[in-house]
Design goal:
It contains 1 helix and 11 strands, in the order E-E-E-E-E-E-E-E-E-H-E-E. It is mainly beta. The strands form 2 sheets. Strands 2, 4, 5, 6, 9, 10 and 11 form a 7-stranded mixed beta sheet that branches. Strands 1-3-8-7 form a 4-stranded antiparallel beta sheet, with no helix packed on it. The radius of gyration is 14 Å and the shape is globular.
Length: about 130
Amino acid sequence: QVQLVESGGGLVQAGGSLRLSCAASGRTANTYAMGWFRRAPGKDRVPVAALYWSDGSPWYEDHLKDRFTISRDSAKNTVYLQISNLKPEDTAVYYCAWRQGSGRYSILQLTAPTYHYWGQGTQVTVAS
């Protein structure tokens, strides 16, 4: 079992910044990736950023890469998502996810919603 605890969401004015955190605990050996997804009101959950754990290589949704930065503290098994210049359309519940496995960097593995464990989600609301 792997437990994921997210924090850092909240209400922010447009143009502001947030840093989301996700701490993993439990049986975290063989981490393939940790990722962030979001579900906006009335929409499906979609990937926004992920980190290939072996070497820290990131993946970003293309139109978000200028404002979103994913990073990690390996010693703490924690992944972060820094979001700058927040926009109302960033309003969503943000979910952290953890995938077990090995192998090379694979965009499919990083973005598919088939991660093994998910956090409870943290609400981000951007006011215009």
